Write the structure tokens for this entry.
Amino acid sequence: CWRAVCRLRVTRTSAVPIVPAKPGRNAAAARRGFRYGDGLLVISSPHRAEMQAPSQPQGQSLTPHVYWAQRHGELFLRVDLSDVQKPDVTITENTLFFRAHGHGAKGDNAYEFRLAFLEAVNSEPLFKTTERQVNITVKKIESKWWDRLTKQEKKPIFLVPDFDRWLDESDAETELREKEELEEINKISLESRVRKNSYVTMRTGYLFMYNLVQFLGFSWIFVNMTVRLFVFGQDSLFDTFHVVGDVMNFCQILAIVEVINPLLGLVKTSLVPAIIQVLGRIIILFVVIGSQAEMQNKAAVFAVFYLWSIIEMFRYPYYMLSCIGTEWKILTWIRYTIWIPLYPLGVIAEAVCVVQSIPHFEESGRFTVQLPNPLNISFSFTYFLQVYLIIMFLGLFVNFRHLYKQRNKRLRPRKHKIY
């Protein structure tokens, strides 16, 4: 049996397995595009082109690896592409479009991807190209923590957390506060070298002194009532108004400026909750209690004064320190937490005073207008007090909602969710 060893001549990427050459097969091989000569198998050009290894089709784009992290006000994206010259990065309708030519996981090719964000973002992204990657920063419209990055719940396969920059919500909030504290320190340092505005200085001094005076007044009331309670026991419950009533009257009259301050723009606070609190306490103190000698000996007066003084002992120091840009975390927590049990208890104690005063007002007829009179109108103050009881609890709802929003703003609950 005749045998010949066939050597294969390879051109570029074409490859053909070695085939033993036999006599009489040249004609058949030639019809198929092959020929044998001198022990060598030669591939004709048409078949050689067909057998070349496939390459990446021109114009087809691939998806790069994208790493992401977030802060309360920003999103960070890191695109794993090197040697990128002029990337095309745009945001349209909260969707980021990226297109660039660079060297990625699948070689030197065109890469692109799109991300539809969970919530609204700024339409002008910031990006920086390095030799190894493309860094993209996107500003959030609303500064808050997102549960995920994309609008779709299922995570894209090319998107993974950037653990080099990743922080959970609690750590990000700590970082934000440290940044704010550093900015505040720099601001104070700058202000120490620059002449301060006289108006700002006077406003700060005025607010600081007001809160200091109120703090001292309510602290004196609380200490006095506490000491008398331990010394005299239950007997101290019935002469509270005669002992601390003058100081309480002074503090509540002074509190009228808490309605004037937001009207003048001296403080940034809601006007309605301030009016509800100040007006409500004036009615209880000067009308319900102060105008009826029989009410001044009630134990409910002790409860009202004691609850008021506890709440204000923490509220006014917090505002006082805020005037000079200082914050104690424990004081902040107490100020935005202690009202949760004490505020409803205070309203209940005030309601008890109103209910106990109705028989006395009905008997004395004080503040009641009867017919006939020149104006030809009648007014029953006891009916007014009954309606006022309903208004008190509506005011409780309004103030409770306002304080709850403030608490969430200052003491935001922390969540941790990564996908």
Remarks:
- Confidence is low (pLDDT under 50) at residues 1-57.
- DSSP finds eleven helices and eleven strands in the chain.
- The two ends are 69 Å apart (CA to CA).
